[in-house]
Amino acid sequence: LQVGAGAGLPGVLAARCGAEVILSDSEELPRCLQHCRRSCRLNGLPHVPVLGLTWGRLPLLTLPPLDIILGSDVFFDPKDFEDILTTVYYLLEKNPHAQFWTTYQVRSADWSIEAWLCKWKLKATHIPLHLFSADKEHLAGSSLPGRHTIEMMIISLTTPDGT
């Protein structure tokens, strides 16, 4: 499940590589959902479901079992941080063995998800970008990460003993 999919590039790529994918973005952004569907069609993936899923609202829809929840640069507005992690917590509670794979661009020293992780009993494992040569100043002709600090992390539920 890709949350905050936008045009759905990571999810479309995963589907093109053979993964079973569901793309989602806010139900309040119908044009965004239309763009997601169009991206799927243009990439030969008309069967990929695109769902409205608004952060912070407990989804009433029934989803199949999930292994990975993917969020590509969803942490860009601090007012959404708790809603994102509330939604992730709910999805992980329904799928305790699943993980939330996400990237995060550090935009301000004052913005952090650490307190929300603690509140929602989630833990983050930081993945060093050098493990897959993503720590270069320019990647694939893009200026990102450039001089920006980009973090990749895998978020999961804490165990009963707090680990």
TrEMBL record:
The keyword S-adenosyl-L-methionine applies. SUPFAM superfamilies: S-adenosyl-L-methionine-dependent methyltransferases (SSF53335). One of its GO terms (molecular function) is methyltransferase activity. One of its GO terms (biological process) is methylation. It comes from Cuculus canorus (Common cuckoo). Keywords: Methyltransferase, S-adenosyl-L-methionine, Transferase. This is Methyltransferase-like 23. Belongs to the methyltransferase superfamily. METTL23 family. It comes from the Eukaryota. One of its GO terms (cellular component) is nucleus.
